[in-house]
Design brief:
The chain is built from eleven helices and 14 strands. It is an alpha/beta fold and about 375 residues long.
Length: about 375
């Protein structure tokens, strides 16, 4: 079979990983890596036996596919340029800077019959794959994604940097539109949110809580799901998956646990997680999720079947992320008095001259003027 001529665009951290892994696949013919920075190209080329180019125009021949790991601000223009030529694209997440641009890329890909895949790599995490096999209709989902501050992706906040991974995971588990979004976020290191919490409620009644931090003293990547058939928890780092499935008599309420004698209750407690709510622990097989993602990209190109994470799904995750960000930016930390809104929670200095909602007093601080301040202002 003919190998797929492919180019990697972007010679940063992810671009380097993509180039190395793509070069290892026998179905891909890696034409080179493209980046305007000569130093970045040279760094990648010193690690991967591939040629570096300053632009797509310098490639010796036209690619059939492209892996885009350039800054998010460039995704739309690069995607339009590639997809409009019928070149298949694996676009790193987030798909674009806003959902309007994402929809344009989806439409361009459809019009030119090109594959558009989005790099939500956690869909290929073996622990999450195992979790999806154990879940039957999610009712309540909780995700936690904590890491230390890396000084990467500082052009965006933690929602587009980290939470968007979990938004995609949650949306893949729930076949229903998002009805309501509530969210709050705090900035620690810069002007964007570094810690965030979001609550999603779906039209079918499912609820999801998502917590993220990129300046945490602990590292964690986990998903917990309460479903019709029980509870499943996946540690996305260790690949440990724990399942708890209530036995039939417990689900049907055939046993009156509350009406039992003290001796019977003691026995239930002793046997709870072996007889009534048995725990099953499994370790998902080790895998390279980015490599599996690239294999899925190749499969989609060769079979013309949709990739696991399509452009439509990438756009949907971004749309929900925008709703989360809107809630974060509108959150009033000090109530109805003149608020400090958004992730910057430090109060502004007191300045007189702005109407305070619901009051004839004026102040530019979160809270009303004190009596001492009023007297000082009066003269």
């Amino acid at each position: 079979m003919t190998r797929i001529p492919t180019v990697v665009i972007g010679a940063g951290h992810l671009g380097t990983i993509h180039a190395r892994l793509a070069n290892s696949l026998d179905r891909i013919d890696l034409l080179g890596i493209v980046d305007p920075s000569a130093a970045a190209r040279e760094r990648v080329c010193s690690q991967v036996p591939v040629a570096g180019y300053g632009s797509l125009a310098e490639l010796p021949r036209s690619p059939q596919a492209a892996i885009v790991a350039a800054p998010t601000a460039l995704h739309h223009d690069l995607g339009q340029q590639l997809l409009s030529q019928g070149i298949h694209v694996l676009m790193e997440k987030p798909i674009t800077v806003d959902s309007g641009q994402a929809r344009e890329l989806v439409e361009t890909a459809r019009r030119h019959e090109a594959v558009l895949q989005v790099g939500h790599v956690e869909r290929f995490n073996p622990a999450f794959c195992l979790l999806t096999e154990r879940v039957n209709r999610a009712k309540f989902i909780q995700t936690r994604r904590f890491s230390e501050y890396t000084f990467r992706s500082t052009d965006v906040g933690v929602v587009l940097d980290l939470m968007i991974h979990d938004l995609d995971l949650v949306l893949s588990l729930v076949d229903s539109p998002v009805a309501q979004v509530d969210a709050v976020g705090i900035s620690v290191m810069g002007e964007h949110e570094d810690i965030a919490h979001a609550r999603l409620e779906f039209e079918n009644g499912t609820v999801a809580n998502l917590e993220v931090s990129r300046c945490s003293f602990v590292r964690e990547r986990s998903v917990q799901v309460f479903a019709d058939n029980g509870y499943v928890q996946a540690d996305l780092t260790s690949r440990l998956v724990k399942s708890v499935a209530p036995q039939g008599d417990m689900l049907s309420r055939a046993v009156d646990f509350l009406g039992q004698t003290q001796e019977q209750r003691n026995q239930v407690r002793a046997d709870l997680f072996t007889q009534w709510l048995p725990i099953v622990e499994e370790t998902a097989p080790e895998a390279n999720a980015i490599l599996d993602e690239q294999r899925d990209f190749v499969r989609a190109i060769e079979t013309r079947h949709a990739p696991r994470v399509s452009g439509v799904e990438g756009a949907r995750a971004l749309e929900v992320a925008e709703r989360v960000l809107a809630e974060i930016n509108e959150h009033a930390w000090y109530g109805k008095s003149l608020p400090v809104r958004g992730p910057l929670s430090i109060p502004l200095p007191r300045v007189v001259g702005v109407d305070e909602p619901g009051s004839s007093e004026v102040s530019l601080v979160p809270g009303r003027e004190t009596q001492e301040e009023r007297q000082r202002r009066a003269g």
